[in-house]
Amino acid sequence: MIAQSQLEYTSIDVAVDIGCGNGRNAVYLANKGVDVIALDFSTEAVAQTKRRVAQSSVSGSVEVLLSDITVGIPVADNSIDLVVDSYFSCHLIGKSILNNYFSQVRRVIKSDGQLYWAGLGIRDEYYQNIIDSHPSENIIVDPINDIPKRLYDIRYLDVELPFEGSPVLATELLFEDTVSGDSYQRSIVSAVFDS
């Protein structure tokens, strides 16, 4: 979820929620007065987002599209004030795919726009217990859903995320959580980048 203290909503007219999932961030932003384009490649995620938007008071402010972001972001150049990447790019394991994705983000974001990014931290005990054959690259394959993910180190986001530049704000949330009956310290890393 996007933390209110991390973004100045009065300067955001249009946002793109990449990998919108169930639509919680899209509706949250729309409730702040932002027009949102919510994108996901999953037909189920798009259906969930459309249901959530329809049940909200901001349905006129959110456009939901089925889109494969690895092919491109279907919006005009320099048209977006805020790009939200909440656990999307952590699934882009190949360097060329990741570089292409961030090139697309830079293409659509305005010169005074921002990228809000969130991913999983390297200090996540659950994922450290299952790190796969790429420990130097911090890649895991989640045994619950067989989806590969990259873990991030808050100290090196300017290197690990090819957005160009250092974040203007970076935070790590550490919390206790239970997975399959066992308790772990979990880690979520988030950052805001200026374009």
Describe the structure.
By secondary structure, the chain is α/β, with parallel strands linked by helices. The protein has one domain (about 5-120, about 155-170, about 190-195): Vaccinia Virus protein VP39 (Rossmann fold, 3-Layer(aba) Sandwich), CATH 3.40.50. Helix content is about 20%, strand content about 35%. It has five helices and ten strands; from the N terminus they run βαβαββαβαβββαββ. Strands 1, 2, 3, 4, 5, 6, 7, 8, 9 and 10 form a ten-stranded mixed beta sheet that branches. It is globular. Residues about 1-5 have low confidence and may be disordered.
Keywords:
195 residues, alpha/beta, Rossmann fold, 10-stranded mixed sheet, disordered N terminus
**CATH fold description:** Rossmann fold
The assigned structural class equals alpha/beta
Helix content: 10-25%
What about the largest sheet? 10 strands, mixed
User: CA-to-CA gap between the ends?
Assistant: 21 Å
Number of strands: 10
- What is the chain-wise order of helices and strands? EHEHEEHEHEEEHEE
Strand percentage lies at 35-45%
Which parts are unreliable, with pLDDT below 50 for 5 consecutive residues or more? Answer: 1-5
Number of individual domains: 1
CATH architecture: 3-Layer(aba) Sandwich
